[in-house]
Amino acid sequence: MSDRSVIWVRDALVILFSLYVVFALALAPWSTLKIPEPIPVVCGNGCAPLVKFPEDNYYHYQNSLTFEWSPVSVGYRVVVSNDETDEVLMDSNYTNVNTATTSRLPMGTYLTRVYYTGISGSNFDTFPILKSELVNVEKDSGEKLTIIWSAVSVYYNLDIRLHSETEIGPEKVIIHEADKLEDTTYTYSEFVNGRTYSWSVNAVDSRGYVSESSQLRDVNIDTTKFLAFELFNNWEVPFLLLGVMMVIALQAGVFLAREEKDD
User: Which range marks the domain in which residue 199 is found?
Assistant: First the structure.
């Protein structure tokens, strides 16, 4: 093999390796490296919605931003007992559904009860009852009972606060409130550039139970800091830049090696 052929093979391998590095970095699941916010086990009437976007201290370059959070879970407890003997034949918990089916029950009369266990994380002393009904099973071979109840609706309340300086010190004043939101996103379009805001969200159900509020998260509306924040706050960008720099360095090394060979 001639020297020129060796150089071309070497250059091809360097280019292939460089492309592999760049694509591997680009396709890596960097989002899984973020530590998820822990969900409390006990939250009074219910845990706060889990915030998805934006993260705390987020810098934004426009005066419009869409807030996102995860829906909270709603729980139910279904109990089926024999009305004559009080024997419990079913005692199960359900989440985000409003129907349940028993196994085959022998002939008899059964008391079906549906309790509301609340928004995820609720800590009730006694569960409110949503439905209580007597049902007859008349077949000797037994049959399954399907229990249906009215689902409890969940809404969300969001507030946005403006950071301001007073004679006493820094203050966060509520400037906007959005109540009874059915969706888990909300867009606000009246930010002022160069200011810092905070926001939080909580859940409330149709029975009047209210969850805790999420922790206040800061949002900075500032075009001058946006670029630097995006470059160094995201996992993907620094590694992509590293991959590009590696490609340039490798190509420069190949070029210098060729120059030395020609000399």
Answer: 36-69+154-230
